[in-house]
Amino acid sequence: MITIIKSLPPLAAIFLISFAISLAITVVYKYTTNQKFMKALQGEMKDIRQQIKNTKDTAQAGILNKKLMEKTMQQMMHSMKSTFITIIPIFLIFGWMNSNLAYEQAAPNEEFTTTMQFHEGTGGAAAIESPTLQILSNSTQQITGNKAAWTLKGAEGKHEIFYTYAEERYKREVLLTGKWEYADPTLEKKSSILGIINIGDKNPIKEGSGIKKITIDLRPVHPFGSLKLFGWQPGWLATYFLFMLAMTFPLRKLLRVH
After folding, report:
1. What pTM, to 2 d.p., does this model score?
2. 125-129: strand order across its sheet
3. CA distances from 46 to 54, 250, 257 (A)
4. What is the 3 state secondary structure string of the chain?
5. DSSP bridge pairs for 134
6. Contact 117, 213 (CB under 8 A)
7. pLDDT tens for each residue of the chain, 258 residues long
8. Distance (Å, rounded) from C-alpha 96 to C-alpha 5?
9. Among 37, 119, 218, 248, which is disulfide-ready with 103 (CB 3.0 to 4.6 Å)?
10. Architecture of domain 112-217
11. How many CA atoms does the CB half-sphere of 234 hold within 13 Å?
12. Which residues are registered as beta bridge partners of 127?
């Protein structure tokens, strides 16, 4: 599945992932809820809304609104099981998408930058080295404004950059390509869900380090290209939610989910 997704353009890949998640959520919801109960509950809520719309009695409208809120709470509580089942897999998929769909890779033989970001008050100098990339700025930089940055350039392919600060040393790969391939541009500290499932790097920045994160400074992916909606260019996450909104209702109708 991942191989298929990576062979597609970003827009098609996000559409496929959105469809798969929408379908999975809809199926789980259908089979973990009492559909007869949910259908009856929705019917009652529809009737109450109609009564609220028709009544001119303020006191009666208040009573009906309270009743509607109770029914809405029943609906939410009844759907909690499906939410618990799907929430962790969705977080994992989001983590993968953020690490594989969020940025365009740097182009071969064009300048790009890499940055080390530090916690407030961190001082001193940081350095980088690379056996295959040309470092166009000084390899050692003083930390200014809680960061140090370098400009680099190289031929097509994967390259390694080594970062040094005090006694700490880290490595990050950068991919220079004109194709849609991916190398995660960010190295951060340990990250997990509920302290159990690791969603970060295999070799994260040490806890207690003055380094906040290390990034290859890439351009964000805009799956719709230059298309703008009221001056706004959707990124991968907004594109995902747009597809989810467009697909959820038709899928629920198709699968007769209440």
Report:
1. 0.70
2. 140-142, 125-129, 157-165, 168-176
3. 12, 20, 16
4. CHHHHHCCCHHHHHHHHHHHHHHHHHHHHHHHCCHHHHHHHHHHHHHHHHHHHHCCCHHHHHHHHHHHHHHHHHHHHHCHHHHHHHHHHHHHHHHHHHHHCCECCECCCCCEEEEEEECCCCCCEEEEECCCCEECCCCEEECECCEEEEEEECCCEEEEEEEEECCEEEEEEEEECCCCCCCCCEECECCEECCCEECCCCCCECCCCCEEEEEEECCECCCCCCCCECCECCCHHHHHHHHHHHHHHHHHHHCCCC
5. 153
6. yes
7. 666 777 788 889 899 999 999 999 999 999 999 999 888 888 899 999 999 888 888 888 888 899 989 988 988 888 888 888 988 888 888 888 887 788 888 999 999 999 999 999 999 999 999 999 999 999 999 999 999 999 999 999 999 999 999 999 999 999 999 887 778 888 888 765 555 555 556 778 898 899 999 999 988 888 888 888 777 888 889 999 999 999 999 999 998 888
8. 12
9. 218
10. Sandwich (2.60)
11. 15
12. 140, 164
Residue with tokens 């740097």: 106
Domain ranges of the chain: 7-101+235-254, 112-217
